[in-house]
Amino acid sequence: RKEVEQDPGPFNVPEGATVAFNCTYSNSASQSFFWYRQDCRKEPKLLMSVYSSGNEDGRFTAQLNRASQYISLLIRDSKLSDSATYLCVVTGTGGFKTIFGAGTRLFVKA
Amino acid sequence: DTGVSQDPRHKITKRGQNVTFRCDPISEHNRLYWYRQTLGQGPEFLTYFQNEAQLEKSRLLSDRFSAERPKGSFSTLEIQRTEQGDSAMYLCASSPGTSVTDTQYFGPGTRLTVL
Description:
The structure holds two protein chains of two kinds. By secondary structure, chain A is mostly beta strands.
């Protein structure tokens, strides 16, 4: 079993749609959780951190369920510019080792 | 630009040759990571440094791979006797190193092609 697993995608959605990505992690000792965004042939960039209380940044909402070892990302009112790969990231599983999921590809169409 | 830089951006080599990549982190960032990424996959953890100390290495990192950060600033990743399976994007990231919740800032990567 992979340490971090994500929806395989791709997700093809029209502009304005709401889309949700799911992620599960295997190590209950994990301490920190993030969503990164990676554009085609570019480096990953932090989208947002994920907290147990849930957090929101504009159109993006992230949730963490430690009991179920589950992380989610909700994107509302999708824009063409949201087209990218979204990477679920877990760290603190042992020291500061960081584990990335395989990513979920999102295509937003006009 | 004070972001993470990597050199070279592209490297083409023949199987069996040694290659070395350099990463310059953001100034005063104490933690430095190396990752490998292949098409359709997320970055795969290789190793990380806290200042000059290499604190963890992935079991995926064979004896042919070695990384250094001699003065706690820039880092090098060397691959000896390259194999075609080493073809990938090699990414470096740095973070302040003050907390497990630190954001990692990535460099543009070095794309390695082994012929």
